[in-house]
Sequence to fold (421 residues):
Amino acid sequence: MQISIPDGFKKMMQELLGPEAEEFLMAMDKSPVTSVRVNNRKPGAGFPGATRVKWCDSGFYLPERPQFVLDPLLHAGAYYVQDASSMIYQTLAEIIAGQLKKNNLKVLDLCAAPGGKTTAMINGLPDGADIVANEISVKRVGALRENLCKWGYRPVKVTNRDSSSFAEEGEIYDIVAVDAPCSGEGMMRKDEDARSQWSPALIAQCAALQKEILSNAVQTLKPGGFLIYSTCTFNREENELNAEFIKNNLGLVPFDPEFPVEWGIMNGLGTDLPVYRFMPHHTNGEGLFVAVFKKNIDAGFSEGSVPDKNLFPRAKNDLKDRNGKDKKAHKNFTPKTKELDVIPEIDRILEIGYNDEKYPKVELSLEEARCYLRRESLRLSRDIPAGIIIVTYKGLPLGPAKNIGSRINNLYPKAWRVLQR
Fold:
């Protein structure tokens, strides 16, 4: 039985939207759409009958949802399954890179798992950008590492750290993205956990945690750099009020990406700041709030100007993460600074433009590729050279295997093995 939208949430949205609330609530009862974003640096994915996402030239809506896990092109990193609203990160990266006018950008995605917004930014950034993708939750960092490895952009480092440890390192990054853990109201129509866990207390907990993360994020940003702040929720406490906090307490200057009116993205509610809302009754996607700020060249934290953490204390009870699953992720966390290396061989093989002639490439059929991804035995042509080979699908590498003559050993990573048939 599906859990209904909480009455308290409905009342909140009626107060926020007024006459538009009925249309909004009707949209929240509709089924979510299916959308994908192709990898600009790994061409090959095609989607018959797809229509383009207005605000992302690499994004497409699909007429129906296929079994993505059985498509080898997904595992080769040719595309990423992502809600259309979140694809705005590609466009924001393009806009900000145009403002900064340099290739060797240093970028930090502070709350990166599972990697959708990181890969979207990679699509929009110039070659040569160095990216750190961080995730505080140990449970979620594995998926982040896998998705970034498959996307194939080499200058990416995956870390598992508390945001405070980045603040201690100083002003390093040109772009810092904070897609903050939130109450998840924007996910209510496709995630029952988002409906069942909703409460005003959860909103207050999330807003406090977001302020703490933002306060750390600002200290990592170079003067002249840009901060992207987003949530997948609708309330003002986590959205507009936190944007006001960034401006008034952290000293950053609002930056307007000037989205075209025809995209249907709403302005913020109850604020003059140039912040934006993706609302399901106006845009074809889930709920998303986004704001961009710039750090002045002469900006800096003087003694006593770093906000007092007592202004936003964490609640005593544990906080669920954005999926409502990992309730221990932010409580009594000991910062970790160890970099998590991806599997070296598979990382190199899936790199964009990989072309090491040392290892023969063997093209697989669809069924052979699915067998490979399930880590099953392969039966290939007898004329394949002995030793390590690279198996491909539609020209894109999937990973390594080893021909030992009597059989072919499947070397696809065990942790990535596809179980579905």
Summary: The first strand starts at residue 34 and ends at 38.
